[in-house]
Amino acid sequence: MSILSRNRTGPSVDLDEVHAALARVEDPELKMPLADAGMVGDVELGRNGLVRITVRLTTSSCPMKDRLVSDVTGAVSSVAGVTRVEVTLGTMGESERMQLAGKLRGGRVEGTHQFGEGSSTNVYAVASGKGGVGKSSVTANLAVALAQQGQRVGVLDADVWGYSIPQLFGVRRSPVALKGLMMPVEAHGVSLMSVGFFVEEEEPVVWRGPMLHKALEQFMTDVHWGELDTLLLDLPPGTGDVTMTLLDLIPDAQLLAVTTPQQAAQTVAARVGRMARDTRMPIAGVVENMSTLVCPACAEQTPIFGEGGGARLAATIDAPLLGQIPLDLPLRTSGDAGVPAMVAAPTAASVMEIRRIAGELPVVRRSLVGRPLALSVI
């Protein structure tokens, strides 16, 4: 790393303090200090408190370059004596990119993932028996709620045919690739990966069999998730190939079953629960979505989809009912607008219930014999 320091201002600006300020700046995608990533180039002290800094990007098409410039400018501007900051953007060379990719892998063998035995990340497989129960909306808002509570959170949109995470988070761009590693797309404090980032919005996904398995495997092994506290897997409805593939890849994933109060939704969701029990998959619990319809004018709640589906499902699969989320206007409109309700409507009835569920989300581990046992609460 080349550091150029020509001080034309005398002692008014301390170069060490400038570097200390830069050390506090992280690349928003790598989640890594710029200096540790080898992204800090020349630093020059000019006249009258001017500081010139070169930042070397991993790729010239970096989608977060404006934020990076803003973060560097803000950090260095806080140093005593600095009156102006000029940031010049460059690009890493191939050898530097290769070294950085190796550092990000952290010695992990290529083709393996970080969520295996001994991982400190809590992985939840959010599943439903049928579509239309708001599973992805629950996943998205639960992820934001956990992030707002200080956790490092990722969402893998494994619903490859009906992906909706890009829409719910309001982002649609290709992830940055770095020598075989993909960087998750970040939105609202959550790291995201979805097939929707790789295809046009109206393009159908017709993967199946080995191609489907390989894609999911790559999302686990070739994505730099960083140090996560929680990873949420948004599964497609039912008990098909995707669910079984992910069970093979992450056997310690915990099932989070989503249903509505309707008998039809509860009955098919029970099949997912039985599959989990048959494979000794830990079950964190049940979330009942659309429990009631909240009148926007009077706040009166009406059980338009019936009552008791969540409780019946919880009893059937021997798991706790974690919460009952009402259907209100903010939850629906925020999804259409691409801003999670946790951000757009923090006082909505649905949001307050999701926030409560996130704060009490249990952690269960696969037992060696028999049923999994609950160990703790996040």
TrEMBL record:
Domain named MIP18 family-like: residues: 16-87
A GO biological-process term: iron-sulfur cluster assembly
Keyword Repressor: no
Amino-acid positions noted as binding ATP in the UniProt annotation, renumbered to this chain: 129-136
One family name in Pfam for this protein: FeS_assembly_P
A GO molecular-function descriptor: ATP-dependent FeS chaperone activity
Keyword Transcription on entry: no
Protein keywords: ATP-binding, Hydrolase, Iron, Iron-sulfur, Metal-binding, Nucleotide-binding
InterPro entries, per database record: FSCA_dom_sf, MIP18-like, Mrp/NBP35_ATP-bd, NUBPL-like, P-loop_NTPase, YlxH/NBP35
Oligomeric form and interacting partners: Homodimer.
Purpose: Binds and transfers iron-sulfur (Fe-S) clusters to target apoproteins. Can hydrolyze ATP.
Family under the similarity heading: Belongs to the Mrp/NBP35 ATP-binding proteins family.
HAMAP family attached to this UniProt entry: Mrp_NBP35 (MF_02040)
Protein name listed in UniProt: Iron-sulfur cluster carrier protein
